[in-house]
Design goal:
By secondary structure, this protein is an alpha/beta fold. It is 35% helix and 21% strand. A hairpin with a 4-residue loop joins strand 10 (194-195) and strand 11 (200-201).
Length: 503
Protein backbone atom coordinates (compact mmCIF):
# COMPACT_ATOMS: atom_id res chain seq x y z
CA UNK A 1 0.00 0.00 0.00
CA UNK A 2 1.26 3.50 -0.87
CA UNK A 3 2.30 5.46 2.16
CA UNK A 4 2.18 9.19 2.60
CA UNK A 5 3.51 11.73 5.09
CA UNK A 6 1.21 13.99 7.12
CA UNK A 7 2.13 17.49 8.25
CA UNK A 8 0.30 19.60 10.81
CA UNK A 9 0.83 23.30 10.07
CA UNK A 10 -0.31 25.16 13.18
CA UNK A 11 -0.10 28.78 12.08
CA UNK A 12 -0.94 32.16 13.55
CA UNK A 13 -4.36 32.44 11.91
CA UNK A 14 -5.26 28.85 11.03
CA UNK A 15 -4.37 25.19 11.41
CA UNK A 16 -3.92 22.89 8.42
CA UNK A 17 -3.27 19.23 7.83
CA UNK A 18 -1.53 18.50 4.54
CA UNK A 19 -0.71 15.06 3.18
CA UNK A 20 2.27 14.76 0.82
CA UNK A 21 3.37 12.02 -1.56
CA UNK A 22 6.92 10.83 -2.19
CA UNK A 23 7.52 13.57 -4.78
CA UNK A 24 6.71 16.24 -2.22
CA UNK A 25 3.40 17.04 -3.91
CA UNK A 26 0.20 17.81 -2.02
CA UNK A 27 -2.31 14.94 -2.05
CA UNK A 28 -4.94 16.65 0.07
CA UNK A 29 -5.35 19.27 2.76
CA UNK A 30 -7.87 20.73 5.14
CA UNK A 31 -7.74 24.08 6.94
CA UNK A 32 -9.59 25.87 9.71
CA UNK A 33 -9.09 29.38 11.11
CA UNK A 34 -9.10 30.14 14.82
CA UNK A 35 -10.14 33.26 16.70
CA UNK A 36 -7.72 36.15 17.13
CA UNK A 37 -8.27 37.59 20.62
CA UNK A 38 -7.23 41.18 21.40
CA UNK A 39 -8.05 41.89 25.09
CA UNK A 40 -6.08 45.17 25.20
CA UNK A 41 -4.08 47.29 22.74
CA UNK A 42 -0.91 45.35 21.88
CA UNK A 43 -2.17 42.12 23.47
CA UNK A 44 -2.80 39.07 21.25
CA UNK A 45 -4.13 35.71 22.45
CA UNK A 46 -5.27 32.35 21.07
CA UNK A 47 -7.42 29.70 22.74
CA UNK A 48 -5.22 26.56 22.88
CA UNK A 49 -8.24 24.28 23.33
CA UNK A 50 -9.80 25.69 20.15
CA UNK A 51 -6.53 25.12 18.28
CA UNK A 52 -6.30 21.48 19.40
CA UNK A 53 -9.95 20.90 18.46
CA UNK A 54 -9.28 22.44 15.03
CA UNK A 55 -6.20 20.23 14.66
CA UNK A 56 -8.33 17.14 15.21
CA UNK A 57 -10.93 18.39 12.73
CA UNK A 58 -8.49 19.18 9.90
CA UNK A 59 -6.77 15.80 10.30
CA UNK A 60 -10.12 14.03 9.94
CA UNK A 61 -11.13 16.39 7.12
CA UNK A 62 -8.01 15.91 5.01
CA UNK A 63 -8.13 12.12 5.35
CA UNK A 64 -11.81 12.08 4.38
CA UNK A 65 -11.27 14.27 1.30
CA UNK A 66 -8.70 11.82 -0.09
CA UNK A 67 -10.43 8.66 1.08
CA UNK A 68 -7.41 7.78 3.23
CA UNK A 69 -7.11 6.37 6.72
CA UNK A 70 -4.54 7.23 9.36
CA UNK A 71 -2.74 3.94 8.71
CA UNK A 72 -1.88 5.18 5.18
CA UNK A 73 0.59 7.63 6.74
CA UNK A 74 4.19 6.66 7.45
CA UNK A 75 4.79 9.47 9.96
CA UNK A 76 3.57 12.84 11.24
CA UNK A 77 5.55 16.08 11.37
CA UNK A 78 4.52 19.35 12.99
CA UNK A 79 5.33 22.94 12.14
CA UNK A 80 4.05 25.83 14.17
CA UNK A 81 3.80 29.53 14.86
CA UNK A 82 6.87 30.12 16.97
CA UNK A 83 7.15 31.82 20.39
CA UNK A 84 3.39 31.57 21.09
CA UNK A 85 3.28 30.17 24.61
CA UNK A 86 0.95 27.93 26.64
CA UNK A 87 1.04 26.84 30.30
CA UNK A 88 -1.30 23.98 31.20
CA UNK A 89 -2.22 21.45 33.87
CA UNK A 90 -0.53 18.14 33.13
CA UNK A 91 -3.27 16.11 34.82
CA UNK A 92 -6.22 17.63 32.96
CA UNK A 93 -4.69 19.28 29.89
CA UNK A 94 -6.53 22.49 30.72
CA UNK A 95 -4.60 25.69 29.98
CA UNK A 96 -4.31 28.13 32.89
CA UNK A 97 -5.07 30.99 30.47
CA UNK A 98 -5.15 31.70 26.75
CA UNK A 99 -1.93 31.27 24.78
CA UNK A 100 0.17 34.45 24.62
CA UNK A 101 0.89 34.99 20.91
CA UNK A 102 4.31 35.86 19.49
CA UNK A 103 3.06 39.31 18.41
CA UNK A 104 1.84 40.20 21.92
CA UNK A 105 3.58 43.09 23.70
CA UNK A 106 2.27 42.46 27.25
CA UNK A 107 5.76 41.45 28.45
CA UNK A 108 7.13 44.91 27.71
CA UNK A 109 7.57 45.79 31.40
CA UNK A 110 9.33 42.48 32.09
CA UNK A 111 11.67 43.08 29.17
CA UNK A 112 12.31 46.70 30.21
CA UNK A 113 13.35 45.52 33.67
CA UNK A 114 15.66 42.86 32.21
CA UNK A 115 17.22 45.45 29.89
CA UNK A 116 17.65 48.00 32.69
CA UNK A 117 19.47 45.39 34.78
CA UNK A 118 21.81 44.08 32.08
CA UNK A 119 21.18 45.57 28.65
CA UNK A 120 19.17 44.34 25.67
CA UNK A 121 21.95 41.91 24.70
CA UNK A 122 22.52 40.45 28.18
CA UNK A 123 21.52 36.94 27.01
CA UNK A 124 22.59 37.24 23.37
CA UNK A 125 25.93 35.43 23.73
CA UNK A 126 24.17 32.32 25.03
CA UNK A 127 20.85 32.47 23.20
CA UNK A 128 21.57 34.47 20.04
CA UNK A 129 18.60 36.71 20.87
CA UNK A 130 18.07 40.20 22.26
CA UNK A 131 15.70 40.74 25.18
CA UNK A 132 12.37 41.44 23.43
CA UNK A 133 8.65 40.86 23.88
CA UNK A 134 8.80 38.51 20.86
CA UNK A 135 10.29 35.53 22.70
CA UNK A 136 8.68 32.82 24.81
CA UNK A 137 10.64 32.99 28.08
CA UNK A 138 9.21 36.35 29.22
CA UNK A 139 5.74 35.10 28.21
CA UNK A 140 6.10 32.07 30.53
CA UNK A 141 7.24 34.41 33.30
CA UNK A 142 4.25 36.69 32.69
CA UNK A 143 1.78 33.78 32.95
CA UNK A 144 3.40 32.42 36.13
CA UNK A 145 3.58 35.89 37.68
CA UNK A 146 0.00 36.93 36.90
CA UNK A 147 -2.00 33.67 37.06
CA UNK A 148 -1.72 32.41 40.67
CA UNK A 149 -2.99 28.92 39.82
CA UNK A 150 -0.25 28.53 37.22
CA UNK A 151 2.55 29.53 39.62
CA UNK A 152 1.13 27.25 42.33
CA UNK A 153 0.93 24.29 39.95
CA UNK A 154 4.43 25.00 38.58
CA UNK A 155 5.89 24.96 42.10
CA UNK A 156 4.24 21.56 42.72
CA UNK A 157 5.49 20.19 39.38
CA UNK A 158 1.93 19.97 38.04
CA UNK A 159 2.26 22.58 35.24
CA UNK A 160 3.71 22.10 31.78
CA UNK A 161 5.10 24.93 29.62
CA UNK A 162 5.50 24.93 25.88
CA UNK A 163 5.16 26.50 22.49
CA UNK A 164 2.50 25.33 20.07
CA UNK A 165 4.34 22.28 18.70
CA UNK A 166 4.83 21.10 22.31
CA UNK A 167 1.10 21.51 22.98
CA UNK A 168 0.05 19.67 19.79
CA UNK A 169 2.59 16.82 20.21
CA UNK A 170 1.49 16.30 23.83
CA UNK A 171 -2.13 15.86 22.77
CA UNK A 172 -1.28 13.80 19.65
CA UNK A 173 0.66 11.28 21.74
CA UNK A 174 -1.88 10.87 24.53
CA UNK A 175 -2.18 14.14 26.45
CA UNK A 176 -2.87 13.48 30.15
CA UNK A 177 -2.43 9.75 29.44
CA UNK A 178 1.32 9.86 28.92
CA UNK A 179 1.71 12.38 26.11
CA UNK A 180 5.28 13.30 25.13
CA UNK A 181 6.39 16.68 26.51
CA UNK A 182 9.06 17.77 24.01
CA UNK A 183 10.26 20.82 22.08
CA UNK A 184 12.49 20.62 19.05
CA UNK A 185 15.71 22.64 18.97
CA UNK A 186 14.35 25.27 16.55
CA UNK A 187 11.43 26.17 18.80
CA UNK A 188 13.54 25.91 21.96
CA UNK A 189 15.99 28.36 20.40
CA UNK A 190 13.20 30.98 20.30
CA UNK A 191 12.48 31.00 24.02
CA UNK A 192 15.44 33.12 25.24
CA UNK A 193 16.07 30.18 27.59
CA UNK A 194 18.25 27.76 25.55
CA UNK A 195 22.02 27.82 25.19
CA UNK A 196 22.77 27.72 21.45
CA UNK A 197 25.93 25.64 21.89
CA UNK A 198 24.81 23.04 24.46
CA UNK A 199 21.20 22.88 23.18
CA UNK A 200 20.04 22.74 26.80
CA UNK A 201 17.96 25.03 29.02
CA UNK A 202 20.20 27.55 30.74
CA UNK A 203 19.85 27.46 34.53
CA UNK A 204 21.18 30.98 35.05
CA UNK A 205 18.52 32.52 32.78
CA UNK A 206 15.80 30.30 34.29
CA UNK A 207 16.76 31.60 37.74
CA UNK A 208 16.69 35.23 36.58
CA UNK A 209 13.21 34.76 35.09
CA UNK A 210 12.01 32.57 38.00
CA UNK A 211 10.91 29.76 35.66
CA UNK A 212 10.98 26.25 37.24
CA UNK A 213 12.92 23.86 35.02
CA UNK A 214 10.63 20.80 35.60
CA UNK A 215 7.80 22.51 33.68
CA UNK A 216 9.89 22.85 30.52
CA UNK A 217 9.82 20.21 27.76
CA UNK A 218 12.70 17.93 26.85
CA UNK A 219 14.70 19.40 23.94
CA UNK A 220 14.84 17.01 20.96
CA UNK A 221 16.12 17.06 17.34
CA UNK A 222 13.91 18.45 14.57
CA UNK A 223 13.89 15.04 12.88
CA UNK A 224 14.26 12.17 15.30
CA UNK A 225 14.57 8.46 14.58
CA UNK A 226 13.85 7.94 18.28
CA UNK A 227 10.20 8.88 17.78
CA UNK A 228 8.54 10.74 20.65
CA UNK A 229 5.58 8.41 20.65
CA UNK A 230 2.81 7.25 18.34
CA UNK A 231 -0.55 8.90 17.84
CA UNK A 232 -3.35 7.20 19.75
CA UNK A 233 -6.08 5.02 18.30
CA UNK A 234 -8.60 7.17 20.14
CA UNK A 235 -7.29 10.30 18.38
CA UNK A 236 -8.22 11.75 14.99
CA UNK A 237 -5.94 9.39 13.02
CA UNK A 238 -7.49 6.27 14.60
CA UNK A 239 -4.06 4.61 14.28
CA UNK A 240 -0.64 4.50 15.93
CA UNK A 241 1.55 6.62 13.65
CA UNK A 242 5.07 7.83 14.62
CA UNK A 243 5.30 11.49 15.70
CA UNK A 244 8.95 12.20 15.02
CA UNK A 245 9.52 15.69 13.58
CA UNK A 246 8.90 19.30 14.49
CA UNK A 247 10.20 22.62 13.23
CA UNK A 248 9.25 26.21 13.89
CA UNK A 249 7.44 27.50 10.83
CA UNK A 250 10.31 29.54 9.41
CA UNK A 251 12.86 26.78 9.88
CA UNK A 252 10.39 24.37 8.29
CA UNK A 253 10.25 26.64 5.25
CA UNK A 254 14.07 26.62 5.11
CA UNK A 255 13.96 22.80 4.99
CA UNK A 256 11.06 22.81 2.52
CA UNK A 257 13.08 25.12 0.25
CA UNK A 258 16.02 22.66 0.60
CA UNK A 259 18.37 25.43 1.78
CA UNK A 260 20.84 22.86 3.10
CA UNK A 261 24.04 24.60 1.94
CA UNK A 262 25.79 27.41 3.80
CA UNK A 263 24.81 30.74 2.21
CA UNK A 264 21.38 29.65 0.93
CA UNK A 265 18.47 31.85 2.03
CA UNK A 266 14.68 31.95 1.89
CA UNK A 267 12.01 34.52 2.79
CA UNK A 268 8.51 33.56 3.91
CA UNK A 269 5.69 36.06 3.40
CA UNK A 270 2.97 35.13 5.86
CA UNK A 271 1.38 36.92 8.80
CA UNK A 272 4.87 38.25 9.39
CA UNK A 273 7.91 38.06 7.13
CA UNK A 274 10.94 35.94 7.97
CA UNK A 275 14.23 35.73 6.12
CA UNK A 276 16.63 32.93 7.10
CA UNK A 277 20.21 32.42 5.90
CA UNK A 278 21.94 29.07 6.46
CA UNK A 279 25.28 29.78 8.19
CA UNK A 280 26.42 26.18 8.69
CA UNK A 281 27.25 24.21 11.83
CA UNK A 282 28.56 27.13 13.90
CA UNK A 283 26.43 29.99 15.22
CA UNK A 284 27.27 33.38 13.68
CA UNK A 285 26.79 36.30 16.11
CA UNK A 286 24.86 39.25 14.69
CA UNK A 287 26.06 42.80 15.15
CA UNK A 288 23.38 44.37 12.97
CA UNK A 289 20.11 43.50 14.70
CA UNK A 290 19.51 39.96 13.42
CA UNK A 291 18.84 36.79 15.40
CA UNK A 292 21.21 33.83 15.65
CA UNK A 293 19.00 30.78 15.74
CA UNK A 294 18.81 27.03 15.03
CA UNK A 295 17.99 26.13 11.44
CA UNK A 296 17.44 22.41 12.06
CA UNK A 297 18.99 19.33 13.58
CA UNK A 298 18.51 15.93 11.99
CA UNK A 299 18.86 13.07 14.49
CA UNK A 300 22.28 13.13 16.18
CA UNK A 301 24.00 15.10 13.44
CA UNK A 302 25.56 18.50 14.13
CA UNK A 303 22.95 21.26 14.36
CA UNK A 304 22.72 23.77 11.52
CA UNK A 305 22.43 27.45 12.46
CA UNK A 306 20.91 30.48 10.76
CA UNK A 307 20.85 34.21 10.81
CA UNK A 308 17.26 35.41 10.81
CA UNK A 309 15.50 38.67 10.21
CA UNK A 310 12.00 38.75 11.69
CA UNK A 311 9.28 41.18 10.58
CA UNK A 312 6.13 41.27 12.72
CA UNK A 313 3.58 42.54 10.20
CA UNK A 314 3.44 41.59 6.50
CA UNK A 315 0.35 39.63 5.43
CA UNK A 316 -1.27 40.80 8.68
CA UNK A 317 -1.31 44.31 7.20
CA UNK A 318 -3.38 43.06 4.26
CA UNK A 319 -5.77 41.46 6.80
CA UNK A 320 -5.96 44.79 8.63
CA UNK A 321 -6.82 46.64 5.41
CA UNK A 322 -9.55 44.04 4.79
CA UNK A 323 -10.98 43.63 8.30
CA UNK A 324 -10.44 47.02 9.97
CA UNK A 325 -10.82 49.39 7.01
CA UNK A 326 -12.97 47.30 4.66
CA UNK A 327 -11.04 48.44 1.56
CA UNK A 328 -11.03 44.90 0.10
CA UNK A 329 -13.31 41.87 0.42
CA UNK A 330 -10.59 39.21 0.33
CA UNK A 331 -6.81 39.31 0.77
CA UNK A 332 -5.98 38.57 -2.91
CA UNK A 333 -8.01 41.68 -3.92
CA UNK A 334 -5.14 43.87 -2.68
CA UNK A 335 -3.19 43.28 -5.89
CA UNK A 336 -5.91 44.56 -8.25
CA UNK A 337 -6.50 47.58 -6.03
CA UNK A 338 -2.76 48.33 -6.01
CA UNK A 339 -2.60 47.92 -9.80
CA UNK A 340 -5.23 50.64 -10.21
CA UNK A 341 -2.45 53.22 -9.72
CA UNK A 342 1.02 53.55 -11.23
CA UNK A 343 2.85 54.17 -7.94
CA UNK A 344 2.31 54.78 -4.21
CA UNK A 345 1.36 58.44 -4.69
CA UNK A 346 4.06 59.49 -2.22
CA UNK A 347 2.72 57.32 0.62
CA UNK A 348 4.83 55.14 2.91
CA UNK A 349 3.13 52.77 5.36
CA UNK A 350 5.28 51.37 8.20
CA UNK A 351 3.16 48.74 10.03
CA UNK A 352 4.85 48.88 13.44
CA UNK A 353 1.65 47.66 15.13
CA UNK A 354 3.66 45.62 17.66
CA UNK A 355 6.77 47.76 17.56
CA UNK A 356 9.55 47.11 15.06
CA UNK A 357 11.32 43.74 14.99
CA UNK A 358 14.63 43.16 13.15
CA UNK A 359 16.89 44.94 12.59
CA UNK A 360 15.57 47.76 14.82
CA UNK A 361 14.11 45.99 17.90
CA UNK A 362 12.08 49.01 18.97
CA UNK A 363 8.99 48.07 21.03
CA UNK A 364 8.27 51.80 21.40
CA UNK A 365 7.49 52.16 17.68
CA UNK A 366 3.93 52.27 16.34
CA UNK A 367 2.52 52.20 12.83
CA UNK A 368 2.51 55.28 10.63
CA UNK A 369 1.20 56.31 7.22
CA UNK A 370 3.27 59.25 5.95
CA UNK A 371 3.29 61.40 2.82
CA UNK A 372 -0.48 61.82 2.66
CA UNK A 373 -1.94 64.49 0.36
CA UNK A 374 -5.43 64.93 -1.06
CA UNK A 375 -4.13 63.26 -4.22
CA UNK A 376 -3.80 59.94 -2.36
CA UNK A 377 -6.52 57.32 -2.76
CA UNK A 378 -7.17 53.74 -1.70
CA UNK A 379 -5.13 52.38 -4.62
CA UNK A 380 -2.07 54.28 -3.41
CA UNK A 381 -2.67 52.96 0.10
CA UNK A 382 -2.92 49.38 -1.22
CA UNK A 383 0.35 49.79 -3.09
CA UNK A 384 2.06 51.18 0.03
CA UNK A 385 0.78 48.16 1.98
CA UNK A 386 2.49 45.75 -0.43
CA UNK A 387 5.64 47.83 -0.70
CA UNK A 388 6.03 47.81 3.08
CA UNK A 389 6.71 44.05 3.05
CA UNK A 390 9.40 44.52 0.39
CA UNK A 391 11.07 47.46 2.13
CA UNK A 392 11.11 45.65 5.48
CA UNK A 393 12.74 42.70 3.72
CA UNK A 394 15.37 44.99 2.24
CA UNK A 395 16.20 46.25 5.76
CA UNK A 396 16.83 42.63 6.76
CA UNK A 397 18.94 41.83 3.69
CA UNK A 398 21.17 44.86 4.29
CA UNK A 399 21.84 43.69 7.85
CA UNK A 400 22.37 40.10 6.72
CA UNK A 401 24.91 41.11 4.07
CA UNK A 402 26.89 42.99 6.75
CA UNK A 403 26.77 40.12 9.28
CA UNK A 404 27.58 37.33 6.84
CA UNK A 405 30.04 39.25 4.67
CA UNK A 406 28.32 37.77 1.61
CA UNK A 407 26.04 39.69 -0.76
CA UNK A 408 22.71 37.96 -1.38
CA UNK A 409 22.56 36.93 -5.04
CA UNK A 410 19.04 35.45 -5.19
CA UNK A 411 16.10 34.97 -2.86
CA UNK A 412 13.88 31.90 -2.64
CA UNK A 413 10.38 32.91 -1.53
CA UNK A 414 7.31 31.17 -0.17
CA UNK A 415 4.15 31.84 1.82
CA UNK A 416 0.72 33.16 0.94
CA UNK A 417 1.86 36.52 -0.47
CA UNK A 418 4.20 35.07 -3.12
CA UNK A 419 1.25 34.64 -5.50
CA UNK A 420 1.08 38.43 -5.67
CA UNK A 421 3.06 39.24 -8.82
CA UNK A 422 3.11 42.97 -8.13
CA UNK A 423 4.74 42.44 -4.72
CA UNK A 424 7.26 39.90 -6.01
CA UNK A 425 8.33 42.16 -8.87
CA UNK A 426 8.72 45.10 -6.48
CA UNK A 427 10.75 42.87 -4.15
CA UNK A 428 13.14 41.96 -6.97
CA UNK A 429 13.35 45.64 -7.93
CA UNK A 430 14.06 46.98 -4.46
CA UNK A 431 16.60 44.24 -3.63
CA UNK A 432 18.16 44.25 -7.11
CA UNK A 433 18.35 40.42 -7.08
CA UNK A 434 16.36 37.57 -8.63
CA UNK A 435 13.32 36.39 -6.65
CA UNK A 436 12.42 32.73 -7.14
CA UNK A 437 9.15 30.96 -6.28
CA UNK A 438 9.18 27.12 -6.17
CA UNK A 439 6.48 24.93 -7.71
CA UNK A 440 5.33 23.84 -4.24
CA UNK A 441 4.81 27.13 -2.40
CA UNK A 442 3.56 25.36 0.75
CA UNK A 443 7.14 24.96 1.87
CA UNK A 444 6.42 25.30 5.60
CA UNK A 445 4.27 22.17 5.79
CA UNK A 446 6.55 20.46 3.26
CA UNK A 447 9.57 21.04 5.52
CA UNK A 448 7.76 19.38 8.43
CA UNK A 449 6.84 16.47 6.15
CA UNK A 450 10.45 16.16 4.94
CA UNK A 451 11.74 16.06 8.53
CA UNK A 452 9.23 13.34 9.46
CA UNK A 453 9.93 11.36 6.31
CA UNK A 454 13.70 11.46 6.88
CA UNK A 455 13.20 10.12 10.42
CA UNK A 456 11.38 6.98 9.23
CA UNK A 457 13.33 6.43 5.99
CA UNK A 458 10.50 7.57 3.68
CA UNK A 459 13.15 9.71 1.95
CA UNK A 460 16.73 8.49 1.78
CA UNK A 461 18.49 11.79 2.41
CA UNK A 462 18.91 15.44 1.52
CA UNK A 463 19.87 14.80 -2.10
CA UNK A 464 16.52 13.12 -2.75
CA UNK A 465 14.74 16.12 -1.24
CA UNK A 466 16.68 18.52 -3.49
CA UNK A 467 15.46 16.60 -6.54
CA UNK A 468 11.88 17.43 -5.55
CA UNK A 469 12.53 21.20 -5.60
CA UNK A 470 11.68 22.97 -8.87
CA UNK A 471 11.26 26.59 -10.01
CA UNK A 472 7.77 27.88 -10.74
CA UNK A 473 8.53 31.53 -11.53
CA UNK A 474 11.43 33.98 -11.36
CA UNK A 475 11.22 37.78 -11.15
CA UNK A 476 14.22 39.83 -12.30
CA UNK A 477 14.93 43.41 -11.15
CA UNK A 478 13.79 46.12 -13.59
CA UNK A 479 14.06 49.32 -11.53
CA UNK A 480 16.59 52.10 -12.12
CA UNK A 481 19.22 52.67 -9.45
CA UNK A 482 18.00 56.23 -8.90
CA UNK A 483 14.38 55.14 -8.35
CA UNK A 484 15.54 52.43 -5.96
CA UNK A 485 17.66 54.87 -3.96
CA UNK A 486 14.83 57.42 -3.75
CA UNK A 487 12.32 54.83 -2.54
CA UNK A 488 14.70 53.47 0.10
CA UNK A 489 15.51 56.96 1.36
CA UNK A 490 11.80 57.73 1.78
CA UNK A 491 11.27 54.42 3.58
CA UNK A 492 14.08 55.15 6.08
CA UNK A 493 12.54 58.56 6.82
CA UNK A 494 9.17 56.92 7.40
CA UNK A 495 10.69 54.37 9.81
CA UNK A 496 12.19 57.23 11.85
CA UNK A 497 8.67 58.68 12.28
CA UNK A 498 7.50 55.50 14.07
CA UNK A 499 10.03 55.69 16.90
CA UNK A 500 9.54 56.88 20.50
CA UNK A 501 5.75 56.75 20.22
CA UNK A 502 5.22 54.62 23.36
CA UNK A 503 6.95 55.83 26.51
Amino acid sequence: MTKYIGAIDQGTTSTRFIIFDHDGRIVTLDQKEHEQIFPKPGWVEHDPAEIWQNTEEVIRGALAKAGLSGSDLAAIGITNQRETTVVWDKATGKPFCNAVVWQCTRTNDICKELINEGGQDRFREKTGLPVATYFSGPKIKWILDTVPEARKAAQKGDALFGTMETWVIWWLTGGPRGGAHVSDVTNASRTLLMDLKTLEWDDEILNILNIPRPGLPRIVPSSDTKTWGPTTEEGPLKARIPVCAALGDQQAALVGQTCFETGEAKNTYGTGCFLLLNTGTSPVPSRHGLLTTLGYRFNDEKPVYCLEGSIAIAGALVQWIRDNLGLIQAAPDIEELAKSVANNGGICFVPAFSGLFAPYWRPDARGVIVGLTRYANKGHLARAVLESAAYQTRDIVEAMNKDSGVELSQLKVDGGMVHNDLLMQFQADILNVSVIRPQVAETTALGAAYAAGLAVGFWSGLSELRQNWAVDKTWEPAMSQSARAKGCQEWKKAVERTLDWVA
